[in-house]
């Protein structure tokens, strides 16, 4: 009787170890895909920036126009020390940074819900939704659009669509970075579990 | 009906027309661009350009090169050629040549004012100014708080003074006011240049009217597309369009109410010269519009050289060189970013 109970326990333990290994491999796969997507988003962003300079002229798009006056950050990252977990709060209003962080939370919730689809798929979906302007609530979407235009206004208020596309690409890259951070945290957690299982087995 | 330019043009303009036609023969050809597009690094680009007229300007630049360095040095060549022509010109050609640079002057004024608003160092801003648009008191622009002071302290003694009458206010300068100031100044400049060319008459008036009308129409389209989704009202948008050109006045009325790129296409396709431009684009797309407009502009500028005894060749040459510098900038960026597959997205061949 006791030996069969031990057998069941050891089988459960093996299954759990295997699950930890699978989780670890899944995390590594997600991490590598996200890194590739980030690299692609940044490449696209830099080329679009060059295209915007080509279109608008070097005098309208250059680093000498960056605003050095102190102003609120339009996008912040909140850190939860438990896992750790990072949360991006995008396009908060400079008048009321708390009020319009809902759009960021909404998008983050969407990201977590769609995690099973894979990062590349959900990244493409997110870009399409933003470009179509479909998913977000209208009020927060308008506010996000206003904040985007405000940030871009350092290059002038009538900017080329290419510069707006550049902004979207780098915004996507920023989201990727936060997601990579979260994936890396869960990857390291999964790795720790695998190591613990190995130690217990030995 | 042209005047008898053939009898008298060469007395004052013959030498410079020959000079500018010589300069024109130094423009890069399709073979040069093919070589440049195959370069792996910016040093390769420098090596290929050393065999062209840009060679002396780039030869002393140390590695590693930057794309802005290539653009700066190529621009210096254009500036030297322009200054040589201006030094040799007599009236009215000298005034005509000065008109060509007022657009750069407006860009420099806006750059200094915007940078000052953003608390940037004036010296840093002056380094970014286009050399063709420099004037003596440009650094003083940094002290102005509103347009009235801009005008009173600095611009009253510059060629841009007459263009300020439509945009003088006492409102403090902000991003929207500056943008409206930029476009209002440019509108006034284009209209003034157009009137000046009309006064010159003959082949100059005919050729320059076509080129400036195209410029006015292109600006109207760009203003429309860039203002979609912004706070600029329809009336304000309409006020920024120039009062001449193929689109004036009915095309402007349609463009003023456009809310997306397809409506802009609908308004423009009623005009045959622009129908061919928009036919190259797919619906909802505006990325290739710039290249389509540049290609049309280059075609018209090259045609200006088919005729003699007019000042349009000087304007055409300056614009073709600027296009060439844009091409070099784009090729350099694609090479530097390892994106050579995209190099033909924005290169416009001149010959």
UniProtKB/TrEMBL annotation, chain A:
Coiled coil location: none
Chain spans, region Disordered: 110-150
InterPro entries linked to this entry: Vma22/CCDC115
One GO MF term attached to the UniProt entry: unfolded protein binding
GO biological process assignments: vacuolar proton-transporting V-type ATPase complex assembly
Lineage top rank: taxon: Eukaryota
PANTHER family: COILED-COIL DOMAIN-CONTAINING PROTEIN 115
Protein name, as recorded: Vacuolar ATPase assembly protein VMA22
Protein's organism: Sesamum alatum
From TrEMBL, chain B:
The family this protein is said to belong to: Belongs to the V-ATPase V0D/AC39 subunit family.
Coiled coil: none
Main location: membrane
Compartment list: Vacuole membrane
Key words of the record: Hydrogen ion transport, Ion transport, Transport
GO cellular component terms, A-Z: proton-transporting V-type ATPase, V0 domain; vacuolar membrane
Record's protein name: V-type proton ATPase subunit
SUPFAM superfamilies membership: V-type ATP synthase subunit C (SSF103486)
InterPro entries xrefs: ATPase_csu/dsu_sf, ATPase_V0-cplx_csu/dsu, ATPase_V0-cplx_dsu, V-type_ATPase_csu/dsu, V-type_ATPase_csu/dsu_dom_3
Subunit field text: V-ATPase is a heteromultimeric enzyme composed of a peripheral catalytic V1 complex (components A to H) attached to an integral membrane V0 proton pore complex (components: a, c, c'', d and e). V-ATPase is a heteromultimeric enzyme made up of two complexes: the ATP-hydrolytic V1 complex and the proton translocation V0 complex.
Membrane topology: Peripheral membrane protein
Annotated organism of origin: Sesamum alatum
Protein purpose: Subunit of the V0 complex of vacuolar(H+)-ATPase (V-ATPase), a multisubunit enzyme composed of a peripheral complex (V1) that hydrolyzes ATP and a membrane integral complex (V0) that translocates protons. V-ATPase is responsible for acidifying and maintaining the pH of intracellular compartments and in some cell types, is targeted to the plasma membrane, where it is responsible for acidifying the extracellular environment.
Origin: domain of life: Eukaryota
Molecular function per GO: proton-transporting ATPase activity, rotational mechanism
């Amino acid at each position: 009787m006791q030996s069969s109970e031990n057998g069941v326990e050891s089988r459960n333990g093996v299954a759990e170890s295997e699950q930890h290994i699978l989780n670890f491999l899944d995390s590594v796969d997600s991490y590598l895909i996200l890194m590739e997507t980030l690299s692609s988003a940044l490449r696209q962003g830099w080329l679009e920036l060059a295209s915007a300079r080509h279109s608008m002229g070097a005098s309208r798009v250059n680093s000498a126009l960056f605003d050095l006056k102190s102003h609120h950050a339009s996008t912040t990252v909140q850190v939860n020390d438990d896992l750790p977990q990072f949360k991006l709060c995008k396009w908060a209003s400079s008048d009321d940074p708390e009020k319009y962080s809902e759009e960021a939370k909404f998008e983050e919730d969407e990201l977590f819900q769609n995690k099973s689809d894979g990062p590349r798929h959900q990244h493409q979906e997110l870009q399409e939704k933003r470009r179509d302007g479909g998913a977000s609530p209208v009020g927060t979407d308008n506010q996000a659009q206003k904040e985007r235009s405000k940030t871009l206004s350092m290059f002038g208020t009538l900017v080329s669509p290419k510069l707006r596309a550049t902004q979207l690409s780098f915004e996507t890259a920023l989201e990727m970075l936060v997601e990579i951070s979260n994936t890396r945290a869960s990857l390291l957690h999964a790795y720790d579990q695998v190591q613990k299982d190995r130690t217990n087995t030995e | 009906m042209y005047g008898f330019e053939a009898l008298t043009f060469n007395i004052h303009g013959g030498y410079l027309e020959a000079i500018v036609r010589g300069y024109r023969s130094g423009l890069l050809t399709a073979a040069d661009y093919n070589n440049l597009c195959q370069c792996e690094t910016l040093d390769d680009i420098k090596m290929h350009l050393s065999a062209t007229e840009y060679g002396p300007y780039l030869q002393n630049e140390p590695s590693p090169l930057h794309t802005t360095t290539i653009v700066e040095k190529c621009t210096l060549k254009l500036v030297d050629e322009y200054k040589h022509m201006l030094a040799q010109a007599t009236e009215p050609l000298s005034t005509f040549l000065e008109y060509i640079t007022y657009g750069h002057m407006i860009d420099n004024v806006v750059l200094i004012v915007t940078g000052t608003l953003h608390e940037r160092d004036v010296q840093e801003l002056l380094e970014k100014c286009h050399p063709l648009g420099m004037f003596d008191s440009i650094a003083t622009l940094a002290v102005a708080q509103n347009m009235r002071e801009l005008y009173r302290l600095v611009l009253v003694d510059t060629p841009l003074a007459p263009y300020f009458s439509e945009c003088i206010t006492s409102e403090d300068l902000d991003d929207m006011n500056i943008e409206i100031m930029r476009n209002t100044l440019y509108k006034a400049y284009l209209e003034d240049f157009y009137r000046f060319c009309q006064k010159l008459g003959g082949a100059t008036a005919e050729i320059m009217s076509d080129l400036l009308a195209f410029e006015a129409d292109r600006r109207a389209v760009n203003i429309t597309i860039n203002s979609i989704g912004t706070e600029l009202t329809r009336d304000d948008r309409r006020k920024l369009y120039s009062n001449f050109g193929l689109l004036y006045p009915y095309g402007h009325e349609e463009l003023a109410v456009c809310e997306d790129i397809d409506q802009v296409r609908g308004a423009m396709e009623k005009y045959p010269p622009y129908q061919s431009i928009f036919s190259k684009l797919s619906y909802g797309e505006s990325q290739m519009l710039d290249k389509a407009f540049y290609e049309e502009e280059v075609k018209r500028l090259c045609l200006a050289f088919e005729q003699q005894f007019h000042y349009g060749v000087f304007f055409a040459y300056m614009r073709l060189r600027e296009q060439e510098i844009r091409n070099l900038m784009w090729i350099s960026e694609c090479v530097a970013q390892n994106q050579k597959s995209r190099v033909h997205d924005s290169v416009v061949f001149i010959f």
